[in-house]
């Protein structure tokens, strides 16, 4: 019969084995820690890249001053004539649909051009304003858009719209309720209540959905009836298409 011999390890051997196991665990933990640190760093970099791309889209696409060589035709343009933010008679033969941002400098320039057109073509032109605030580039734009919606609910959109663009450079410091008073809104309590109403924000969502359907990425974007301009068209080009549309509407 074969008997298995069992030899107890010496104390020195046990100490050596424990030291080896301890160093092995330390090495593994160090490698694991380095791997976790590397993984975390990769995730952070990926998050920064995604954020940078998102910010770049908002910073690079809005506020274009150059009009396209030729506008695009939108055959179902009438579906975008929606909302309560309107200036002019609904029966007008020409409609300018404006996707705009109250902090966009080129939108303010367009506002001045359109204001002149409303005066020179009174009765033949209405403006439908669609909010498209680019909040990363313009931190006050969304709040201004909500305030404009509340002004429209109070029947003073035109006045409030003009004040927002006139005071564009001081929107961060001026109070929305103060502008409401200047626009002729007496019930400032109701106006402030409207500012915090979730239904007001939902109206902005409808404008964003419309912008997405038209593949709009920046402001201003303008439709003159069925013709869509990406960027602010020059005064002469805008006048040309408005006059042409009025002539077609009276035929």
State the main characteristics.
251 residues; alpha+beta; Glutaredoxin; 6-stranded mixed sheet; globular; disordered N terminus
Task: Explain what the structure shows.
- Mean pLDDT is 81; it is low at 1-9, 28-33 and 35-63.
- Strands 1-6-5-3-4-2 form a six-stranded mixed sheet, with helices on both faces.
- It has helices at 11-60, 105-120, 141-153, 157-166, 176-182, 188-195, 198-213, 235-249; strands spanning 72-73, 86-87, 94-100, 125-131, 221-224, 227-230.
- It has 251 residues and is an alpha+beta fold.
Structural domain tally:
2
Strand content: 5-15%
Q: Termini distance?
A: 119 Å
What is the highest CATH level, the class of the largest domain?
A: Alpha Beta
Shape: globular
Portion of residues within helices: 40-55%
Order of strands across the main sheet: 1-6-5-3-4-2
Assembly type of the shown chains?
A: single chain
Structural class determined from secondary elements: alpha+beta
H-E string: HEEEHEHHHHHEEH
CATH superfamily grouping of the largest domain: Glutaredoxin
Name the average pLDDT: 81
Count of beta strands: 6
Biggest sheet features: 6 strands, mixed
The number of helical runs is: 8
């Amino acid at each position: 019969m074969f008997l298995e011999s069992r030899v107890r390890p010496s104390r020195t051997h046990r100490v050596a084995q424990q030291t080896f196991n301890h160093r092995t665990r330390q090495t593994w933990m160090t490698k694991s820690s380095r791997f976790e640190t590397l993984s975390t760093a990769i995730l952070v970099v990926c998050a920064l890249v995604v954020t940078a791309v998102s910010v770049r889209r908002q910073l690079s696409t809005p506020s274009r001053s150059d009009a396209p060589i030729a506008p695009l035709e939108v055959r179902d343009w009438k579906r975008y004539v929606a909302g309560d933010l309107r200036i002019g008679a609904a029966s007008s033969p020409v409609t300018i649909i404006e996707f705009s941002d109250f902090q966009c400098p080129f939108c303010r320039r367009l506002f001045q051009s359109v204001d002149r057109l409303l005066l020179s073509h009174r009765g033949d032109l209405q403006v439908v304003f669609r909010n498209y605030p680019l909040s990363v580039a313009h931190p006050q734009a969304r709040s201004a858009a909500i305030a404009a919606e509340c002004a429209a609910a109070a029947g003073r959109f035109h006045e409030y719209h003009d004040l927002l663009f006139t005071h564009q450079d001081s929107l961060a410091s001026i109070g929305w309720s103060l502008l409401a008073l200047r626009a002729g809104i007496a019930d400032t309590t109701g106006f402030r209540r409207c500012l915090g109403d979730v239904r007001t924000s939902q109206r902005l969502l409808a404008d964003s959905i419309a912008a997405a359907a038209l593949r709009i990425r920046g402001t201003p974007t303008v439709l003159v009836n069925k013709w869509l301009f990406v960027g602010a068209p020059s005064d002469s080009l805008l006048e040309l298409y408005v006059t042409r549309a009025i002539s077609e509407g009276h035929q």
